[in-house]
Design goal:
Order of helices and strands: HHHHHHHEEHEEHEEHHHHH
Distance between the termini: 73 Å
Oligomer: single chain
Strand order of the largest sheet: 3-2-1-6-5-4
Largest sheet: 6 strands, antiparallel
Helix content: 55-70%
Mean pLDDT: 83
């Protein structure tokens, strides 16, 4: 005789991720419906919950199943840490409620034989998420007293303000980034410029410049990190950043900060510790968000609008050399590629520096991106 209570089949993280990959469109539709029907929720809160739902669904649908190691908590905590800048208790609870309702509705509609197994897994998943969120809140409260931390942050921002006041414009950005590394205790700070007319981003300033300048691409909806207008901290960049880029820079933990001034996106800063894993609190992320805003205002006030410069004329040869400079080539290599002498190349580089009012090669490339001379 069969026992009336059959054990529920267990679902693994890999199976759950595969399930979401297959059915994410229908689940997404349910999320939008429940989010819009949710009573007594303001527009700001609705947008915040929408961002959480969207980023969580993107994580599940873009994760490589073969690379999952079965460590559910690590997988969830990496995502949770990446949402520090927008998450709070209310938005977290609404996010959980709407995700669960959306999934339950879909399972009922499908009359799936694995409904109980999937829902039991989602229950365990959110138990882990709630525990991780509570741990995160507990760590935050046990840190430095808020008054002392707030004072320290104000002092750091005041130092940054003084630096920006004494700087003349975009050509000083490389020096400003080096000082940001010093002020905020990071070993590497990189600037990625955004060009709105082509909707593309370019690595412009940072250590190991040829590697930085090799980073370029179009900003698409699939790029969840650069698509966000809020700062993002990644305890681990895996599943968020391309593996080739992780290997190129030896990345471990990393922070992305948008630079925005007067509603204009200038680009992004990244902060990291040259391959060392590190933690970041919500308060620290808020501090760096303010850094991005002040840099955005600085670029706006210095008249560095991202507009294509039609007045500045470069010869065909200057344009070719500028393109090779942006690729990170030195004078010797450029001379070899263009069948010129190194002396001639140096003359062209000097001409570019004069036309772009740049002090060095890095500023030539940086100014060119901002003026639309490189695409």
């Amino acid at each position: 005789m069969t026992h009336p209570f059959q054990p529920i089949e267990e679902v693994t993280l890999q199976e759950f991720v595969l399930f979401i990959k297959v059915h994410h469109k229908q689940i997404k539709e349910n999320m939008n419906i429940y989010l819009n029907l949710e009573p007594a929720i303001g527009e700001t809160e609705r947008n915040r919950v929408a961002l959480l739902l969207d980023s969580f669904l993107r994580l599940l649908t873009h994760t490589n199943i073969d690379e999952l190691n079965g460590d559910d908590k690590y997988f969830l905590n990496t995502w949770l840490q990446s949402q520090l800048s927008i998450i709070d208790r209310k938005s977290f609870n609404l996010f959980q409620l709407i995700f669960e309702k959306s999934l339950i509705t879909f399972m009922i509609q499908q009359k799936s034989s694995r409904t109980n197994a999937v829902l039991m897994y989602v229950l365990s998943l959110f138990i882990s998420l709630v525990q991780l969120y509570n741990d995160c809140e507990g760590e935050r409260e046990s840190k430095m007293p808020i008054e002392n931390q707030g004072l320290r942050h104000l002092q750091l921002l005041d130092k940054l303000d003084q630096l920006l006041i004494s700087s003349s414009g975009y050509q000083d950005l490389a020096y400003i980034l080096k000082k940001c590394e010093e002020y905020f205790s990071y070993k590497r700070c990189v600037f990625y410029a955004y060009v709105p007319w082509s909707n593309q981003f370019y690595g412009v300033i940072g250590a190991e410049l040829p590697k930085v300048q090799s980073m370029k691409g179009e900003l698409t909806g699939e790029n969840t990190i650069l698509s966000s207008r809020k700062p993002i901290y990644l305890k681990s960049p895996k599943n968020y950043v391309k593996e080739e880029h992780i290997q190129l820079f030896g990345l471990s933990s990393i922070i992305f900060i948008p630079i925005i001034g007067q509603d204009q996106l200038f680009g992004w800063l990244t902060f990291d510790q040259l391959g060392e894993e590190f933690d970041c609190t919500k308060e620290e992320l808020t501090l760096l968000e303010e850094v991005g805003k002040r840099l955005g205002l600085f670029l706006s006030r210095k008249g560095e609008k991202v507009e294509k410069n039609t007045e500045l004329h470069l010869t065909e040869r200057e344009s070719m050399i500028l393109g090779l400079l942006a690729e990170g080539y030195d004078n010797k290599k450029i001379a070899s590629l263009l069948f010129l002498s190194e002396h001639t190349v140096r003359d062209y580089v000097s001409s570019l520096m004069t036309k772009l009012k740049a002090k060095n090669r890095t500023q030539v490339v940086a100014s060119s991106f901002r003026l639309g001379l490189l695409s």
